[in-house]
């Protein structure tokens, strides 16, 4: 019993210590927003890598998810003679939940892993130490541009994902399920509200911030050697994915609680 309590206490202390380290890392990153210099080239490269090169995976994921969602809603709705609600539920499901969450998880899989591996490799090969000797702040040069770029560009990816997901539902609905094209589009537009779109974009910004921050944090705190780089990459993706899902719950509660 004593060993069990000791293990629980040790795990709790380790969790609190990790939360403290991440909080301090976040505060240090944000503090550089108001202090120069700002590395515009690094920011532009991050925008391109996080935004543009994520479009294919985001588009394909959203397209097939929207199509599958339409099929599932139609099949389930048929039990209650409610097949006509497919356009509305596909739209609200993609915009409120599936679009932002799937884009966030795809960004975590693609971008967080890339950032963590790159920065961890720089650390174990002493490139970060070289930046310090050149009077370049690693947080300002490596972390801030990536975090800022992800926070700004992931909402755009979410908007693209929402649109393509609805398009996937539209294609399946009209070509496979026999919906009238004009009626499907009209029902989609009429059912969505401004709050749905705002919540989707806000989630995108938060998820982008989390994904980039976790990649930078784990990269900066990587241990030595190739195994350390692997552990940092794995830890970054897992942490980002879990935090994105947790943040999604609290954001949904904030936007849509009665």
Automatic annotation (TrEMBL):
It is found in: Cell inner membrane; Membrane. Keywords: Cell inner membrane, Cell membrane, Membrane, Transmembrane, Transmembrane helix, Transport. It is a multi-pass membrane protein. It comes from the Bacteria. One of its GO terms (molecular function) is phospholipid transporter activity. It holds the Pfam family MlaE. One of its GO terms (cellular component) is ATP-binding cassette (ABC) transporter complex. The chain crosses the membrane at residues 51-71, 147-172, 197-220, 232-251. Could be part of an ABC transporter complex. Belongs to the MlaE permease family. PANTHER family: ABC TRANSPORTER PERMEASE PROTEIN-RELATED, PROTEIN TRIGALACTOSYLDIACYLGLYCEROL 1, CHLOROPLASTIC. This is Phospholipid/cholesterol/gamma-HCH transport system permease protein. It comes from Cognatiyoonia koreensis. The lineage of its organism: Bacteria, Pseudomonadati, Pseudomonadota, Alphaproteobacteria, Rhodobacterales.
